[in-house]
Write a structure and sequence with these properties.
This protein has 4 domains: 90 residues, Annexin (Annexin V, domain 1), CATH 1.10.220; 58 residues, Annexin V, domain 1; 78 residues, Annexin V, domain 1 (Orthogonal Bundle); 55 residues, Annexin V, domain 1 (Orthogonal Bundle). It contains 20 helices and no strands. Helix 7 crosses helix 9 and helix 12 crosses helix 14. It is elongated and about 65 Å long. It starts with a helix and ends with a helix.
Length: 326
Amino acid sequence: MSAEDKSKEALAYTSETMWWGTLGSIRPYPNFRPEKDVSHLQAALDKKDLNTLVGIITNRSNAQRQSLARVYKTLTQKELDASLKKALSGDLQSLILGLMMTPERFEAHRLHKAMEGAGTNEDTLLEILCTRTPQQLSDIKAAYNLEYKRDLEKDLISETSGDFSKLIVALLKKENGSGVINQDVMALSEELKNKKPAAEIWISILTTRHPDHLNTVLSKLEFEKGQTMDEALEGHFKGALSGDLKKGLKTLVRCIQNQHLYLAQRIQTMKGPVVQGVMVSHSEEDLLRVRVAYLQSTGTSLYTTLQKQFKGELQQALLAICRAED
């Protein structure tokens, strides 16, 4: 086995042992028999039976999908991804291929896509960097290097600038450290009085403390100021030069205060790549909580909304990931 293959196997093992959550919508398929699944997949690929392809892949856990890919290659001497790519197209292709990636490779893929070509999709960068744990970000960084032979931090720096770039790099390296709540409240409260915002203080505190600690700090700060943090940051960081930084800090604060509501609001755009990105990323981790937040914020279940917004096999796949009505 080559060194690269060993690295990929190690990352696959990481995805199976470290990314599993109890609030995901997708669980391991009972009585999983990979050889039987592969036989059905081969027949479906020959006939271009999209219904069967979607049905199998969306009803297996990520670890089980990795097993399917290995068995498929052993039996056919072909890569399952390549065969699926030939049989599928458009949004359905990107969704199914995304499901076939390990979680950290999928996030690395999303980051790479957000930075390729003209312009940068800051919203996707922020979503991933703000919602992922330090360990997950370390796994994503390793997967990015393995997949693209590039350094994620250097690519992020080249695609961003100024204080926003400092925030992005700090998020990539964030820590769940400790601090003194009252000292952090005082530091941020005093900074809000400055006529010229000091981004370093916000970046330093918000990226080096445990989320529970930060939640308490932000709640106390809101009580003291008599306004939400969103309002405070909106009023404090003004001007064109701080536009991206303000967006970044507001996104980070929203994720600290209620990550699932933030993700639900991301999905509300009903933009294909955004919906797919959030749903695939969180399908085995906490999509059930995102579903609850979606219902609470819109008054409509995510399942019902997906039924209305999408059609055909793409709808079938998204509904399978969503799993059920709320």
